[in-house]
Design brief:
alpha/beta; Aspartate Aminotransferase, domain 2; 7-stranded mixed beta sheet; 5-stranded mixed beta sheet; 13% strand; globular; binds pyridoxal-5'-phosphate
Length: 489
Amino acid sequence: MQQKIEYSLDPENWDELRAQGHRMLDDIIDYMQHLRERPVWQPAPDEVRDTFREPLPHGPMALSDVHETFMQNILPYAIGNAHPGFMGWVQGGGTPVGMLAEMLAAGVNANVGGRNQMPVEVERQILCWVRELFRFPEQASGIFVTGTSMANLIGVLVARTKALGVDVRSTGLQNSSKRLTAYTSVAAHACVAQAFDLSGLGTDALRLIPTDARGEMDTEALKRVIAADRENGCTPFFIAGTAGTVDTGAVDKLSVLADIAEKESLWFHVDGAYGALAVMAPDIAPRLAGIERADSIAFDFHKWAQVQYDAGFILVRDGTLHHDTFAAPVAYLARAERGMATAYPPWPCDFGPDLSRGFRALKTWFAIKTYGIEGLGKVISGSCMLAQYLKQCIEAEPELELLAPVSLNIACFGYRCDDPDRVNANLAIALQESGIAAPSTTLVNGRLAIRAALFNHRSTTRDVDALIEAALRFGAAEVRNTKAFEKVA
Ligand SMILES: *Cc1c(COP(=O)(O)O)cnc(C)c1O
């Protein structure tokens, strides 16, 4: 007797699935279209959180019911970075085009680790475009990664290979007599230090160079520290400049760093997580002069370029060295003359630690094709102009003070009062909880600052006005509360 074996997860009724799929698409497009009418953020009530403590589901549930739960209990309680009033941290807003492209990518479900398939070619197309944007040579390599944290790690690992030779991959660092040292500014993102931790070089190998009044690396201090390290028998090998620091948006003097790296024979890496793609904005691009001389650039399409999460990228000038840092010949990944496993196109898995990889390239390709470099560049110019507008608003209000230069698209400010750190910390929370505008906080020269980072392509002067109005109102209330409290106490 013929046994029937069937366990497919596809629907029995495709028409039903199609109708449900259309409803889901309509719902999420409605959400995007009407974002502005919602609060930027609202905390999830305990009852909602509690519904996510259910036992492991064994039986099936209708897709429409699962979707309903998503609509009720997940969608309203995201952090809100898609919303025009979101100004916290460094986060992109995403686009409708990117969302639709993600859906298509999910349908293909490509594993872009390698092999003879167009999804790999799409990623190579992005690499070609990225080379062109940064004026890198044809030998330059690059791949998508989760984000700049991973991209910085890859940059450090390739630089390590350059400094110690490919054998370091097998011998490890123990057998090296060289004491490698590296340099970045105190304003660098913590993931640069993390890259030294993860690479085994250790964070002690990374010297944190002070910054000047503009938040840029003090290049004279850098030269002095390099000289002192050489004096002490260390082997300087790596400089990481930052294009757009996370706190204030400062851009290191990349040309000067490139000169120093060249003179000292050091690897020049740029953490351009959010700022590097400002090369797309003709008015901002000159600020990045020198980035085209980097040995490697780490950046994110998911921040200023508004591509859906996640879409980080690492670009390396010396593609051979990049390949030799990661490629590992194994039988099951052998290349063939013809068929599916041809050596061309180069396999992304040879350029990073990931073997299975999603189709991040597709949403990026759709975004660049649909909006063009001009469209994306306009978003970047626009948010810098909006930051200047915000700066003017802050300076026009006697109750507010600007706490750092507005270099690109980040403004740090505070409410003037007797106990500013406490009041401003509470003010930032009050703003977030109001759902009106959502800045975050940071420390600027040891002072707590409300930090409004304008990354969202949907943000306008209206959102900045709302931020200022609410900051004045909540700031005054906070000061009043403090006084009332002091009287009682
Ligand atoms: C966001 C950011 C990072 C980290 O990038 P992820 O994509 O979050 O991993 C690193 N450096 C800077 C300057 C950043 O703004």
